[in-house]
Request: fold
Amino acid sequence: MNGLLVALCQDGGKHLYEQIYGYIKEEIRKGRLRFGERLPSTRSLSEFLQVSRSTVELAYGQLLSEGYIEARPYRGYFVCQVEELFDLADWGTAVKSGAPFRETGRESGAADGERNAGERRKEPGETAGSPYVCDFSPDGIDMTVFPYATWKKITKDILVDANSEMFSSGSPKGDYALRETIARYLHSSRGVNCRPEQVIIGAGNDYILMLLEKILGRHVEVAMENPTYRKAYRIFESFAYPISAVEMDGFGMSVEGLRKTAAKVAYVMPSHQYPMGVVMPIGRRMELLKWAGEQEGRYVIEDDYDSEFRFKGKPIPSLQASDRLGKVIYTGTFSKSIAPAIRIGYMVLPLPLLRVYEERCRIYSTTVSRIDQRILNEFIAGGHFERHLNRMRKVYREKHDLMVNGCRGMGRNFALSGENAGLHLLLRDKRGRSEKLLVERAVKAGVRVYGLSEFCMDGVAPKQEGGTVVLGYAALDKGQIRTGLELLEKVWA
Amino acid sequence: MNGLLVALCQDGGKHLYEQIYGYIKEEIRKGRLRFGERLPSTRSLSEFLQVSRSTVELAYGQLLSEGYIEARPYRGYFVCQVEELFDLADWGTAVKSGAPFRETGRESGAADGERNAGERRKEPGETAGSPYVCDFSPDGIDMTVFPYATWKKITKDILVDANSEMFSSGSPKGDYALRETIARYLHSSRGVNCRPEQVIIGAGNDYILMLLEKILGRHVEVAMENPTYRKAYRIFESFAYPISAVEMDGFGMSVEGLRKTAAKVAYVMPSHQYPMGVVMPIGRRMELLKWAGEQEGRYVIEDDYDSEFRFKGKPIPSLQASDRLGKVIYTGTFSKSIAPAIRIGYMVLPLPLLRVYEERCRIYSTTVSRIDQRILNEFIAGGHFERHLNRMRKVYREKHDLMVNGCRGMGRNFALSGENAGLHLLLRDKRGRSEKLLVERAVKAGVRVYGLSEFCMDGVAPKQEGGTVVLGYAALDKGQIRTGLELLEKVWA
Reply:
């Protein structure tokens, strides 16, 4: 690690932990640190580098999250096997090049709304409030801190210049200015490599998938993890796409399992699997990209729905950032990061599919109002989005900490997971009680929690000892969280 | 016609011409005036009723437009054959029941934007102005009189009450309040019979068709007139729907021709065929509905894209108004009547298809921002839409008259058609010169006109003596229209 010391001395402009992380990652990528090799302990490295131990821990934590190293209990940190290493230089550049959200250390990318157990729970037209004292819905976001005043001001300013140009129909892909802004944002915050030409704006995630159907064609076999985002599952089903459920381990979709299917397209959420919260490590990512690269027509849909809200370490780069073969279709929306009501989502098409889009889909007019596109563009380009995200992260982190601490009180009986990112977490009953029992007891106490089976393709949760429930907290206030957890602790005691 | 005199005396609340029209229509519908029977001449009827002759002419004109009667040169007016008479009572009620636009006498319904020769002529992202001195594009609308101030004020007022409810995701079909408003508007202005539950709001006509694909299913053979709205043609093509071109006569799609195809769905524009401007008379409408009623699974898509802008007589009722069997899918947008940029369209589903929608499509989130839905709802419900339409009708009527008078100057050499409604008209060269020659000569003079072949499925105009060109005028100012027509007269002399 002498090289690291030299590097640290030279590269003063970065957070220390980032430099350590970057150095070790490079060493692994270049093969100078090999599979199975043991890293120095955090204590010895911190002493050697004369930095605090927590700095080294932060760096190791990030390497762990991204799958470069693994921790073996009582033995220390070891280099993981990384299937194949593509050149990640661009992502490195992106992080360096003044990424707007860099300072927080928890920055991230695109989001999606309407994640919910199964699909929409509300009937059309229904807007009645929840009948529960506390509804731990993984759906919903906190709109109380939405910058209404800013939004109004931007809207007003834009309408002041209102002209006929703005009220005319625009490009089918969306306004170039907004696509440019989104491309820049995704590059700096998520490492996504794309030109604005590759960005297609559409009215929400569902519409984006409908467009994708037109691009991919019919009878495309799709592989999905199980449990998964059931709404996407239902939408693929509505396309009459054959769907294969692929088993999932602690690293996400099993590529071995994927190979047993005839799937052409794998649908994954590498930054934060929904609902399991798994972060796909670099090794698995490379395996997945390798799978896609082996046959023409294979693609990976990366649904990057809530990666803005990561509460530990640096953001996980997008899978698209590692894609050199044009195999990743990157999708995201502003539903979770701004508001579900604005109905703006996007996808980034790899070049081969962009050509198909140009051929088949330019006929479809844009589905997003031009005025709304302008407002959003100004909201992002004017720095309001960044400020909003930072505020939201703070709000969500407080709720998150409250949740984690509250759940720790139940720690004897429940295993907590998926808590490092996103806006929900999972509790598994260590005493083997069923999901059904947990949900029913909670409902009796006026608390709605969501059984894992509600996220499963066939409505049956994967076999495991003890039921698992999903608890979302974004839309709850702190009082509700406290009350809800207290009630749960009581009825689940 | 003694009954008419009695009726006139009793029913003082209506325009005289409307009473005459209504009375004769009833007589025909009830079979008291039979097929082939001759009506009194306008002069004798006006003398008999002691009303001005122009009042009777107006009434006869409306009956002509709707296909109840026909004019035979030098012989007078005769009752047409009406295939089958459904009960139109509801439409009558709608017209009576204080329709908000009744007073103008030219009121009408839903509109669509982006009608253009072929499809979009602009490349994505391209916003450069036209290279022509005058571009008679049938696309585009006049945005100079758009009530920006009102729109801004509504937006501002709505954002003042901005709350989290409004920023949450709404019903997949669209907000109930807006669907109610649209249902009411369509009923009063277009005679459309529907409950708000049948109205589905979506981001523009193309998206509505994409939803319709999900409802109708795959490999649905569609029949279209030729020439037609080529964008819809291209969209059906993108669904891989087999498309049959059905010949058209002066009454619209030939139902005899339709019967020769295997089509399940007929796509028509009964109020104003695009681009030919033909109004489908009541007899043909009944034939079409009869065709649909003969087999389960047959439907008629009524694209009611620009019926707001009719310059003679009362509005033509929608085909949906005559549908008693649940066979008509009514579609429209606000692109032409408000602005293409707002991206709000809708369809009214007949009950059998509504059930299919509920089954298959509730999964798709709405594509229209809730804020925009509120703004539009307030714009219509607050009476601003009515005022705007009336203003637009005045503006378009002036341009229309300028066009018609200007074209009459070329009357010796050109036959004018399609001029009673909509925002374009057609000129056919009586001297047999080709479309190509006309377009090329115009372009040389810096004037863009659109050959009829650009609207044809195979790009070949139907055989007729002399080429036909389409001239739109909505987006042009009066000076441009004058200049353009002068130039055309010169180069086409």
Chain A touches chain B through 66 residues (CB under 8 Å).
